[in-house]
Amino acid sequence: MSLRAEASESGGVVVEYESEDVREPSIKRSRSQPGSALIYLRGPKFLIYVSGALSMWGDRMWHFAISVFLIELYGRNLLLTAVFGLVVAGSVLLVGALIGDWVDRNPRNKVAHASLFIQNVSVTVCSIVLMLVFSYKQWIEQIWDGWLTVVCYTVVIVLADVANLASTALTIAIQRDWIVVITGYNRGHLAGMNATMRRIDQVTNILAPLAVGQVMTLASNVVGCGFILGWNVVSLIVEFFFLSRVYRIVPALSVKPPGADVEEACLQGGARRRTHVTSSRARGTQAPPEDPSERSLSLKAVAGLPLCFQRLRQLLSTCRDGWTAYYQQDVFLAGMGLAFLYTTVLGFDCITTGYAYTQGISGSLLSLLMGVSAITGLMGTVMFTKLRKAYGLVNTGVISSCLHLGCLLLCVCSVFAPGSPMDLRLLMAYADNSSASSPAASAPGDGGRMASQREKHSYPLGGGSNQPLLPDRSSIHWTNNTVLFDNVPSGTAPESYVSIILLFLGVITARVGLWSFDLTVTQLLQESICESERGVVNGVQSSMNYLMDLLHFIMVIAAPQPQHFGILVIISVLFITAGHTMYFLYARKAKRKSRQRRDT
């Protein structure tokens, strides 16, 4: 029996992916025909690219701007920004499976339009609230003894979090489901669309924050909010039109696996059994029969609960089954390996760039390094398409993993290279000081040596201890993930630049393997997950990514000083090594299955 026949019997759960060579002759003929460029511009791929570019540009602008706005609102303190980051990560971690389940259970056009509308409306309303707060901040602080300000902060964070959840749903729907259907389950075309979407993301990741940052720097925060508001209104209209057109010209998007009625009945019974049934069908096994007496008792127990508790039980059951479905996937180890890569300080985020700033690296040089890292990221997407075509998808992940780990060895070497501020004696001294009951616990000579060590290995921003976190806004250049200053001196130059050079050389070159590996796992998830479970599994994957990302912030909180950064580098490399080891185990298992299929 063919895979197509199996798919029809199991509710469209299993699909057959075509090789990239199947349609090659017809594609070449269509490209040679007159007017093929116009046909492409009206085709679904181009419309998805434009819609994705608008969405990513808006997301990048908003994610950057909201952090800056929260810093400005709270007296240039990072508290609100930290609360916002915790709320965003925690919400996706908790409801990621619910978001994916909602994507699975509803028509594709409804999911895309609803997510798009909620995201843009939330950002628009949040921008209006921010404009009012910035314009009338002093007046608002005097109402209700300042509690109105707290209400405004809460509204801003809640709306921004809702926008992020809607963006997560839209990403799962378009980038994990729609493009699979648009490419007609052709592996070569799917790899091309994945790589193109990632290139668009890399470019917008650099340019969008710079654009809105210039508006905020040259004008004001109010004008910046207005700029984002106008962008979201225009983007909502254009994206809505483009996605609607794609849905019309690709009839396969309107077809989803049946079973919504069965799933609704399961939800009313307090359990979601669709995952178990579809997984059993996909594996060719039969689900064990259900005891009628147990089901009757379960129904009575659920019926006796209040309505709100019944609904809560259903949501918890959905989350549990979503995580179970994720664990039962053949690509579970590959997905976990990708998630482990998020626990790292070896990227161009505020942590690594802030450390570089304390090591005497200027803001202009950091901006240049960020641009170079974007170029190497684009090289990774190109390498992915070449390697996948030459060696296959699984082997591409192995090669990308080895390249990524090899480049990160430079970062490990930077920890022990000349100019590195890491000093393990400082950590032991800090532990002794924290456990001591009085300052007399250490000898005066030791205290003098400790003070000299602190002076040697710390690189202050300059100024007195009462210097504010951010200087006057005229000296600020807003970049993607950090804040660079013109008039504020950078950290004192270290004794040697060998350590910081090795660090950034490793970080920049590693992005080639990193993005190639990311695209590999992304396509493995697209190809391997049943169509009826794409949303919930990818929702859990997003939750895992946010969970591991939270861990790296916890690491920084535990070791915040520049002389601790070397330990964070080593821990990051260990997490990344563990992630790639999981992928190696998956690749070994996949190759073994492939050999067994060939033998049979």
What's the main sheet like? 2 strands, antiparallel
Overall outline: globular
Q: Could you give the distance between the termini? A: 15 Å
Strand arrangement, major sheet: 1-2
- Which residues form runs of ≥5 with pLDDT under 50? 1-15, 259-290, 437-491
SSE succession: HHHHHHHHHHHHHHHHHHHHEEHHH
Task: Name some characteristics of this structure.
600 residues, mainly alpha, two-stranded antiparallel sheet, 23 helices, 2 strands, 1% strand, disordered N terminus
Could you explain the architecture of this structure?
This protein has a two-stranded antiparallel ribbon. The chain has 600 residues and is mainly alpha-helical. It has helices at residues 3-9, 24-32, 36-42, 44-73, 79-105, 108-135, 137-141, 147-182, 187-218, 221-249, 260-268, 274-283, 292-303, 307-328, 332-340, 350-358, 363-391, 393-416, 424-435, 444-457, 498-528, 534-558, 565-599; strands at 476-478, 483-485. α4 (44-73) runs antiparallel to α8, α5 (79-105) crosses α14 and α8 packs across α22 (534-558). Helices cover 75% and strands 1% of the residues. The protein starts with a helix and ends with a helix.
Question: How is the secondary structure organized here?
Answer:
Layout: H1 3-9, H2 24-32, H3 36-42, H4 44-73, H5 79-105, H6 108-135, H7 137-141, H8 147-182, H9 187-218, H10 221-249, H11 260-268, H12 274-283, H13 292-303, H14 307-328, H15 332-340, H16 350-358, H17 363-391, H18 393-416, H19 424-435, H20 444-457, E1 476-478, E2 483-485, H21 498-528, H22 534-558, H23 565-599
Antiparallel strand pairs: 1-2
Helix pairs in contact: 4-5, 4-8, 4-9, 4-10, 5-8, 5-14, 5-22, 6-8, 6-10, 8-22, 9-10, 9-17, 9-21, 14-22, 15-22, 15-23, 17-18, 17-21, 18-21, 18-23
